[in-house]
Amino acid sequence: MTTKRDLIEKMASIVGVGPANDAAKIKEITEGRYSGPGYGWCGDAATWACARVGVTDGEALNRVEINGKWNPGMNLVYLQNWHHAHDAVIPKSSWQDGSPGDFIILFRSDGNHIGLIESINPLVTLDGNGWGGVVSRTKRDDEAKSRILEVLDTTKLLQAVKSGYKSPSLPNPISKRPDAIEPHSTETEVITLTGDMIWDIEINVKIKKFAKAV
Questions:
Q1: Which of 13, 92, 189, 193 is the most buried (most CB within 10 A)?
Q2: How is 61-123 classified by DSSP, letter by letter?
Q3: Residue 101 pLDDT
């Protein structure tokens, strides 16, 4: 049976890998999409690790090797929507109820970030597109903890590996949630929320005051 430990070991096996020292591995992880520092590939690393431990559900993983196509900017969206649909999300207020082998979503002003939890206390994550564009092991400080959006409990996702279960199509459309935008995205998209898409949206507003000379 595939376990969370298997997922951790798979991500840990590529810690230190980056475009500068192993371009071939980055090409494998990103399926050839990496185009330079502006491309955020933390979601690619997360889905790569899932695929390598046997996850094949195309509703959860936005990968060409599984779906035959890739939807730009949707890596985090696929994973988040799958876990919401399968009642496998831990809200930010209870993030410490997560466990090693779960994914954690962190807010970033230029697009959100996903990491794999290696340790809860202290909070340590395995992250694609980390410092210097490598897969890194990062001890998260209080500032980072304040940016936690939610934790994705991977128990059901990994149980599906054994059963071969694939989820039916999730409610259409699989839409970009305001808290699930890919890191470093340069695209602008208008989001339309329909009646059957009810999300708890938290808007983080940073106000900067500027003094004007008179």
A1: 92
A2: ---HHHHSS--TT-HHHHHHHHHHHTT-EEEGGGGGG--TT-EEEE--TTS-EEEEEEETTTT
A3: 98
Side chain identity, residue 114: I
CB 45 within 8 A of CB 127: yes
User: What's the CATH number of domain 4-163, 3.90.1720, 3.40.50, 3.30.160, 3.30.1450?
Assistant: 3.90.1720
Q: Are 116 and 7 in contact (CB under 8 A)?
A: yes
The backbone torsions φ and ψ at residue 90, rounded to the nearest 5 degrees and listed phi first, read -105, 120
Neighbours of 93 (CB within 10 A): 9
- Tell me: the pLDDT tens digits for 109-120? 878 999 999 999
133 and 22 Cβ atoms separated by less than 8 Å:
no
Global confidence as pTM:
0.78
Alpha-carbon distance 106 to 133, whole Å? 17
Would you say 103 and 114 are in contact if contact means Cβ atoms under 8 Å apart? yes
Task: List the domain boundaries for the chain.
Answer: 4-163
Angle of the 4-12 helix axis to the 155-163 helix axis, nearest 10: 100
User: Tokens for 128?
Assistant: 């694609």
List the structure tokens of 111: 């697009």
The predicted model gives 54-80 an average pLDDT of 96
